[in-house]
Structures
1.
Amino acid sequence: MSKHQYAMVMDLNKCIGCQTCAVGCKKQWTHRDGAGYMYWNNVETHPGKGYPRNWHSIGGGFDSRRNLRPSPLPPKEDYGEAYEYDYRQRLFGGKNKPVMPHKKPTYGANWEEDVGGMNAGNPYFFYLPRICNHCTHPACVEACPRKAIYKREEDGIVVIDQERCNGYRYCIKSCPYKKIYFNEVAGKSEKCIFCYPRLEKGNVNACAAQCPGRIRFVGLLDDAESPISKLVNDWQVALGLFPEKGTHPNVYYVPPFNPPKDGQAGRSLLDDPRLPLDYLIYLFGKKVVAAIEFLHRELRRTQQGEKSEVLQLLIGRSDQVRYRIVPDALRMDAPEDVRRQLDAHTTGPALTIMGTPSTIGHLPSGQESRSCGNTATGGCRSCNLASQRLVT
Ligand code: SF4
Ligand code: SF4
């Protein structure tokens, strides 16, 4: 059990599907060999098959007796390829043909962009951004026979020790959210690291920092002052995805307000919600009904001139409102040896981690290795980037 738990809330009412988060994450963490097809942060249109295709219906997680129930390994085609585009002919060849991928795409991240429910009389869709949920009971950790995956003691972030990973991929089969990816070049599994090198420096996750919709809130679940605690614990308007999978996800979603359908002459059909409630229950469980009702009540109050604290918070005007990053507090709770290493990084010269085992993404006390994961081509990119202070 971790002493604290970093978590993220995403307000689905504000996501515009611009994919800036996906690009920000890719540029920071997966812009390298073997990771071309990976989106540690992806944004998919719902209803839809998602990325990888059908991830939400193929299995993973735990059954009611807490036994792992692994899915088949998703085939490569279900992720889509990292397509190369022939910009050269367009920019320098004078051919003026459209820019095309190197082969005909058959699937990819957000393949169903804006298609959604395909209901001619009542068109509807919404975007669902996804990262690893840094679960409280991570199926990936339980599935790994090498104990290469672990939850960081002081903040609950789930990472893979690349030195221990043998590329068996049991973790991929067991994760119900399919948020672990296999790097064929490195022969290892990789995943979202919740931008811990940024958090340790007091900076928010790259996906959140880049989000023009300001949909993301970040903080500790157990910090009463954090926006996360207010939205998840106090107001209970943010819910985990597929709670029945048994991993207790720590990425939470404020569900779409679910406006009424439009009837004849554009008149609103007040008691007939546009998004089928069953679909929202499918994604977030039955608690979604109470969350939506509460949000509607708060909305009505503001329409009558009253103030709503929860809606004010969800507007999220400033970084100070949306994020509460507390590196110093967490450092105090890190294992003694790790704390010494972190202190050395803070007080010493710029980090020089490249090519050496990371001292940031540590293992729990007592284990020998000190690798954070991500030792793919060129050393640990996560820590390289942290060492270059590419944190904004
Ligand atoms: S979402 Fe999947 S990869 Fe992430 S911690 Fe949970 S089980 Fe592990
Ligand atoms: S950057 Fe923000 S608004 Fe854009 S797709 Fe990502 S989560 Fe949605």
2.
Amino acid sequence: MNDEPRPAGPGDLLQPTADGLYCPAGDFYIDPRRPVARAVVSHGHADHARPGSQSYLAAAPGACILRRRLGERIRLQTLAYGERLTLGGVTLSLHPAGHILGSAQVRLELGGEIWVVTGDFKTEPDPTCAPFEPVRCHTLVTESTFGLPVFRWPPPAAVMAEIRQWWRENRAAGRTSVLFAYALGKAQRVLAQIGAEDGDVFTHGAVEVVNACYRKAAVRLTDTRPVADAADRRAFRGALVVAPPSADHAGWLRRFPDAVRGFASGWMRIRGHRRRRGVHRGFVLSDHADWSALKAVVAESGAQRVWATHGYAAVFGAWLRSRGLDAAVLTENGLIPSAAPAQGDA
Ligand SMILES: [Zn+2]
Ligand SMILES: [Zn+2]
């Protein structure tokens, strides 16, 4: 067991600040919460890519997504995965995080000291983005969205088979299958693995905008038609409609004959979430690491010091401490020590 976790010190490559994770030696922020001079952005989700910064640096495959989200005229510099750039004395490179198209882990090196910020990541196969790449480091800043032992994902291929089967049954009954999935990443993952041979696929406008970026990046998605383009509601009978969760309301759903609603998310692992959403079917499909993948990635990194952030960071941090690591929880208010765990949990 370690002594008290080390607080962030002036010698550290990254400093938690009110604006986000700051690298003093290189004078840049990673996924800053507020506009800054230089933002390094791990990926295009709204809680990581925020508007208003003077310049952005990101992995090349995510450029289209970032411009759609932050504005076509942002100052955006891109790097290929693995390409190195020196900022101040810091060598920076971006490595696939396997989360969505263009998602990256940020690797920093200064004087032989290596830090990695995972951003959001998953290690499961996903045909719509480059696979997660393990990166060795001394200090790892890792997401821990699903850092509870209850979160264990079924194989994605099995979940995809469940979705197809659900759609097939609904189609046979003449009903419309409306599948809610996050518009950036999750929707495309489904559309890459469900073929047009299953029937007609329609998309909400928010999904179709992102689809365009994926197709531009040569990610193969099944043929889709925007819901708005359908001549009349009969076109939807037996079809699959992919829409963001925000579209789950009576006004939008009224256009579909006998809609059956499904939701694809890691949160569907928890019965309370399924009930609260009130959907007919929950499909456990996440773009984040589950409990065992989180543990495996920390082990593979070789890091002795870990900052856990997002979701169940306190639980995951405590578990890491039980394994003898110098673990702390990174919150919006800075770094807080991980509680000493009562006992280890395998
Ligand atoms: Zn994300
Ligand atoms: Zn996130």
